[in-house]
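Notes, p. 3: input format for complexes.
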Amino acid sequence: MTVQPQRPAFGSVLTSHMAAAFFKNGQWSDTEIKPVAPIELSPGAHVLHYASSCFEGFKAFRHADGSVHVFRMDRHIERLRQSARALVLPEPDPKQLADMVRAVISRCRDAVPETPGALYLRPILFGTTSNIGAAATPTSESTLLVLASPVWDYFAGGMKPLRILVDAEHTRSAAQFGMVKTGGNYAAALGPTLAARAKYQVDQVLFCPGGEVQETGAANFLLVRDGRLLTRSLDASFLHGVTRDSVLQLARDMGYEVVERVFDVPEMLDWVKTGEATLSGTAAVLAGVGTLIYLGAEHRVADGEVGPLTRALRTRLIGIQQGEVPDSHGWLERVY
Ligand code: PLP
Ligand code: COI
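Output follows (336 residues plus pyridoxal-5'-phosphate):
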């Protein structure tokens, strides 16, 4: 038996260096590569009082020949710029940000784990102007950092089927922030998620405001059955996952019919009598759901195990990311 080395919890370890750029007087500074260390921030900083902050999460993978490749960075950079606009923060320059990411990966190349690990990249942008009266005024100064973290599984149980509470009562975010990757959304999901964990021992909450299936606190939600994949159509109410987009493309490549439309909780519960349910996200990858809990009743998803369609899609996605399956959509960029 091989003994698995102890792996740190997802995101709990940062690499030695980060990239930083500062917005002041209407322009971005040059990039600095610095050791990861506490940062100086005025106690009056805009972000601390008025939550002017957004972030991204994506991964770089080490291939068998030692080269390192980043997955769909352009999409994540575009989404950070969209989040910045929604929060009235200065938009990062896409070329500068891509170079910051490449610089961090190169500087921290020894920290990129072998598969099945990856280097998780976390750009974060926040308002630093000191003015505690600026509730209705945007920050004029901001900081952009790119952090990195060697990661393995997000869910502690690895490929264990997930238990999910179906919550038709709470919302995950304010209506205008559904598509925005900002800390406040995670703060809004935290209370309901902890309460659900304590009461039902679930891994996540699936938010279904008004009875319409939306997404979980940190991943999108997909149903798969009989050669069809069903997921909510893109609208402003939820985060447009890059993994969701990739999996939909792979499902089409594999001959599935992909259906994007609004569906409600009763339709989902009917679907999972024989179908599969799965979460999709950079951290979650594709994580199969074994049980849905709704209004106190447990609904087993098919036989309660991670299903074959979820496994096939996950294997294809990971195969591309790890360089074992041809990257026919051009999703990887070789960094070194
Ligand atoms: N929805 C939420 C709320 C998330 O936090 C994430 C993770 O980033 C996703 C969906 C999935 O997005 P992506 O696949 O781009 O990582
Ligand atoms: C991601 O999948 O990148 C996420 O942002 C999830 C999470 C760790 C907040």
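The mean pLDDT is 96.
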